[in-house]
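User: I'm curious whether this sequence folds into something compact or stays loose and floppy. Could you predict its structure so I can see for myself?
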Amino acid sequence: MVFVLILYVTIAIITVDSLAFDEIASAQDYVLAEAASPVLGEIGFKIIAVAALISTFSAINASLYGGSRVSYEIAEDDELPHALTNQLWNQPVGLMVTAIATLILVNILNLESISTAGSIGFLSIFALINLVGYKLASQIQGVKIMPLLGFTLCVFALVVLIVQQYSSNLTGVMVSGVTDI
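Assistant: Here's the prediction. I'll summarize afterward.
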């Protein structure tokens, strides 16, 4: 985590140092590629753009396979419909359901709405996981303050995100309300 934190802060510093704020604002969807241009030229822009695409594909792949495996395991414990234990092409059927739902959403929503819905979903899940960690701290011989702090910060970030996005991206907030249920 420390490495990732240092990496993100370094990238932010380099980006702000390389570009003026108006350039960052105008290139918000590809700002890292734009920040590489002054130093590495057009080839740097292309390398960063391709790396961003590969990173995005990797995250999508991990989310699809991870999510379908989780739903499969929970269905095996009879906490989700048993139909999710069926397999299609040697993969849990939840993978196909998730892939189809994802394809529908990415084709009808803009990127900001998808990002907002995803962020609200992840913050909600992290908050609930921390809450469960807090409630089970004595059983798992854990320290109660860490999951309580995690829960509190996730809820705070969630409220700030919803309030901030409500005025500028109501669609993303509404989609997260429907998809996160």
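Summary: The first strand starts at residue 87 and ends at 88. The mean pLDDT is 80.
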